[in-house]
């Protein structure tokens, strides 16, 4: 007998028929003797509809009222699933975030979980009752409902699994696992049977939307084994776990890409202390996250060019901030480019293998693809390239690292 958390995303509960299917899946686990806590998302499209309602009432809506509205999607599915389970003769009860409660901070719309009181739900689990929790929502210290940011029910599920000491958190979604790269670009991409938390975190932060980034952080911190799998098939999914659990580690486990990139270059910036602090301080004040940064000093050593990347969606705001600050920062000219993408090769094996970056650079050069910017971390090498070469680059790298399925 094991205690598990099963999480079902929006497509898995998109209509009543699918909710009944989910109930059957949960019943199977219960019949196998498991203690089951379920976390549900809103029905597919429902949260978007609720967000649009808020937008249509007020341009500057109060974030507390936004949470009041958008948290309702999960309330509906939790009740419907509890009913469907009861219909199958399974003892089940729905729980809203405030009832458990799942305590969060007061950052409405993007709240962080602070702690979960598991006493009552834990008791119910011990009694054999299925606990159906509404994902995405919590209780702020202002005693009001909060939501955890888009995609937040992954985080609800993993945090619940951590608090309940669950053996595993199964995330049922519309893909059947984590692949070596996007199968829409590389049809012979392989499904990974296991991936480390670190690698998954890099994938999530690159915009791979399968798991909310925060949920992977929590899983890593509390060593929650997370399985990503499809609710529409019975094929095994991908286990996100500690490195020790993976016997055959790949040097590179995946190629990720992000289209949400733009590049700014400030030309002829004075080469003196404090200039970079000025540039990036102004951007940080505007809440703009900068990613890759490169600085080149001119031949005579008096000026420098600073190039950096940022989310494409933030480009207009960043340009405004930098143009306004031109005199204070002290640069001659500014160039911006939004036809760029970031490609990353990710793998924990890089820590102990030389030549990973070299393989990347060679593969790209063989296709005549120019690299604009490079950055590295312990388990990732990223390059910025022109957007038109994105698919070609992903395919070339996928083969270069031997990731293509046989
Ligand atoms: N329903 C919420 C959203 O669409 C939370 C989730 O599904 O994870 O963002
Ligand atoms: Mg999701």
TrEMBL record:
Residues 264-339, 345-406 form the ACT domain. Substrate binds at residues 47, 74. ATP binds at residues 7-10, 173-174, 179, 184, 209-210. One of its GO terms (molecular function) is ATP binding. InterPro entries: AceGlu_kinase-like_sf (IPR036393), ACT-like_dom_sf (IPR045865), ACT_Aspartokinase (IPR054352), ACT_dom (IPR002912), AKii-LysC-BS (IPR041740), Asp/Glu/Uridylate_kinase (IPR001048), Asp_kin_monofn (IPR005260), Asp_kinase (IPR001341). One of its GO terms (cellular component) is cytosol. Its EC number is 2.7.2.4. It comes from the Bacteria. It catalyses: L-aspartate + ATP = 4-phospho-L-aspartate + ADP. Pathway: Amino-acid biosynthesis; L-lysine biosynthesis via DAP pathway; (S)-tetrahydrodipicolinate from L-aspartate: step 1/4; Amino-acid biosynthesis; L-methionine biosynthesis via de novo pathway; L-homoserine from L-aspartate: step 1/3; Amino-acid biosynthesis; L-threonine biosynthesis; L-threonine from L-aspartate: step 1/5. Keywords: Amino-acid biosynthesis, ATP-binding, Kinase, Lysine biosynthesis, Nucleotide-binding, Transferase. The keyword Kinase applies. One of its GO terms (biological process) is threonine biosynthetic process. Belongs to the aspartokinase family. NCBIfam families: asp_kin_monofn, asp_kinases, PRK06635.1-2, PRK06635.1-4. This is Aspartokinase.
């Amino acid at each position: 007998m094991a205690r598990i958390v099963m999480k079902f995303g929006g497509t898995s509960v998109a209509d009543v028929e699918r909710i009944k299917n989910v109930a059957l899946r949960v019943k199977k686990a219960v019949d196998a003797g498991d203690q089951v806590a379920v976390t549900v998302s809103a029905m597919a499209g429902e949260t978007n509809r609720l967000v649009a309602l808020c937008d249509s009432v007020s341009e500057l809506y109060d974030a507390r009222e936004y949470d009041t509205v958008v948290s309702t999607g999960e309330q509906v599915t939790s009740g419907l699933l509890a009913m469907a389970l009861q219909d199958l003769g399974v003892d089940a009860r729905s729980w809203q975030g405030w009832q458990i409660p799942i305590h969060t901070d007061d950052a409405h719309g993007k709240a962080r979980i602070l702690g979960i009181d598991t006493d009552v739900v834990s008791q119910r689990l011990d009694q054999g009752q299925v606990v159906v929790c509404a994902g995405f929502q919590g209780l702020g210290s202002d005693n009001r409902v909060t939501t955890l940011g888009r995609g937040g029910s992954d985080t609800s599920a993993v945090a619940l699994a951590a608090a309940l000491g669950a053996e595993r958190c199964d995330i049922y979604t519309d893909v059947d696992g984590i692949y070596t790269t996007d199968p829409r670009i590389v049809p012979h991409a392989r499904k990974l049977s296991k991936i480390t938390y670190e690698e998954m975190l890099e994938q999530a932060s690159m915009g791979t939307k399968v798991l909310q980034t925060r949920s992977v952080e929590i899983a890593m911190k509390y060593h929650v084994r997370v399985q990503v799998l499809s609710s529409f098939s019975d094929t095994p999914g991908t286990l996100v776990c500690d490195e020790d659990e993976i016997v055959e580690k790949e040097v590179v486990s995946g190629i990720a890409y992000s289209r949400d990139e733009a590049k700014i270059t400030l030309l002829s910036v004075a080469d003196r202390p404090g200039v970079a602090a000025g540039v990036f301080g102004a951007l940080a004040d505007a809440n703009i996250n900068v990613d890759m940064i490169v600085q080149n000093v001119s031949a005579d050593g008096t000026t420098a060019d600073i190039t950096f990347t940022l989310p494409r969606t933030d480009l207009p705001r960043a340009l405004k901030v930098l143009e306004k600050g031109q005199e204070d920062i002290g640069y001659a000219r500014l160039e911006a480019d939004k036809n760029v993408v970031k490609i990353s090769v990710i793998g924990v094996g890089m820590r102990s293998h030389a030549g990973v970056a070299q393989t990347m650079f060679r593969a790209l050069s063989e296709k005549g693809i120019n690299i604009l910017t490079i950055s590295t971390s312990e388990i990732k090498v990223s390059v910025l390239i022109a957007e038109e070469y994105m698919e070609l680059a992903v395919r070339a790298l996928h083969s270069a690292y031997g990731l293509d399925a046989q």
